[in-house]
Design brief:
CATH superfamily of one domain: NAD(P)-binding Rossmann-like Domain
Number of strands: 13
Strand order of the largest sheet: 3-2-1-4-5-7-11
CATH class of one domain: Alpha Beta
Mean pLDDT: 97
Radius of gyration: 19 Å
Low-confidence stretches: none
Structural class: alpha/beta
Largest sheet: 7 strands, parallel
Strand content: 15-25%
Number of helices: 11
Shape: globular
Helix content: 25-40%
Length: 290
Amino acid sequence: MHVFLTGGSGYIGSAVLRRLLGAGHRVTALARSEVSAAKVAAVGALALPGDITDVAWLARRMAETDGAIHTASPNDATSESMDRAVVTAAREAFTGTDKPYVHTSGAWVYGSDDAVTEQSPFDPVAPLAWRPQVAREVLAIPARTGVVLPGVVYGHGGGLPTLVPQSPRAASGALTLIGDGTQHWITVHVEDLADLYSRVLLEGRAGSYWIASDGRNPSVRALGEAASRATDAGGAVVPETAEDTIRRLGVFAEGLLRSQSATGDKARSELGWNPTQPSLTDELEHGSYT
């Protein structure tokens, strides 16, 4: 299969790229800089320099392939306009075909809930208020569309979990938690997530949301204690007020303070997805974040 990929040099996209190439697919990876082009070319993709917001050009390039996965995100004020440009291009490229288009959203479009499912009502964190409508527009495209909603993505020492061991230390040496620590996070290893993208691309039912959760849903206190045990603090942690977390972490804080749990059962039952990587708790104590 010839796959068009955005974000192929990024944290999630690079894992997706490795998964696709490892499965024997041909990948054209959009590259917005010479550095990105060199990264994707080095692992065997065809690097395609171009402007992701040039809708007409992007639609033509997508139409030349058998399907597309969009993982690119600048994580700033331009994220909405970029996503809308990519969705418009996908609509032009794939309308009336059976070609797959897989779009990235995130679990923070849902509210605090100990049983988040694909049918849960949207209640996005403020910086991502635009995401539900974009996701609806994706699923309205008459093609084989799917929206993947990852929780907190971890693995290889990257992603938002780096914030846990990097939190400030109290005078006693205890690690400061993100919030009071009672909240739970939906988590997924980046390699398991890449496997899910591949399955949605190849087998996903048209017009579907797919929550990417390994089903563990650790508490932030458990994560902080694991990170603390990896140091001379020996598992000691101290809570932080929500106000202090917001001051310290800014735009990410609202999502990190939410308490969410999900099983990921839909992806398991319909796609045979089976997360196999170590938990985030293990990774913080013994793995790539130590």
